[in-house]
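Our preliminary data section would be incomplete without showing what the modeling component actually yields. Below, a chain of 255 amino acids is followed by its predicted structure, encoded as tokens that our downstream tools consume directly.
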Amino acid sequence: MSHDFLSRILQQKEAEVAELALEPIGPLRQTYRLYDFLKEHGERLQVIAEVKKASPSMGNINLNVDIVEQARLYETAGAAMISVLTDQVFFKGDLEFLRQISKQVAIPTLAKDFIIDEKQIIRSRNAGATVILLIVAALSEARLKALYDFATYLGLEVLVETHNLSELEIAHRIGAKIIGVNNRNLTTFEVSLQTSLDLAPHFLADRVYVSESAIFTEEDARLVAPHVQAILVGTALMQAENVSQKVKELSIDKS
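Predicted structure:
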């Protein structure tokens, strides 16, 4: 995902947001708080399991998947949260996927999208999300803080995604409690778990951290397990022959 690509996505989002109606705020779906869950279950590397049919880097991953069945498998296998791609143009996701999955599972759901506006946050919440994604690279610090505060005010939790030290420092400054480290380089689109390892010395004790992307095997999970509370896994689970087994394989015992 070159920066040209990121800017292309953001241009697309701006066009989409301009067309979005401001929805009235509905009730917040009740489930546990992800931050508390990750703090309380530190003996194990927790898996945030993602439902995604396609991605710009991988192309089509699993177009025929029964998204609700996939989500149920994740939940039964012990996933801490389900991440749902809601971007249509680049990831073949849909807000309806989030709505359907959120109605069928009891655990938190994450609205995974390029969120740049309050209207998207309200829509995500109304579709059943209890956590939203905000990407530091996609927003100015002031805008990031405004959206973070708005989401928190609405009772949502926020996964704030970072890619390097300066972005991590921004996430810390705005008070983010759940911080993602994306192992995908936004300029070259290459992935390396080294990103998580390099940022780990800068982590703060009162936050929780999620390593995202490039985690396919138990070996990958073991590499990041000493440093993070959770991993976000999409492609490996969407392509797994035995989904439950794969979730369990990646849920490393840290004790």
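DSSP finds eleven helices and ten strands in the chain. The two ends are 36 Å apart (CA to CA). Preliminary results of this kind motivate Aim 1 of the renewal.
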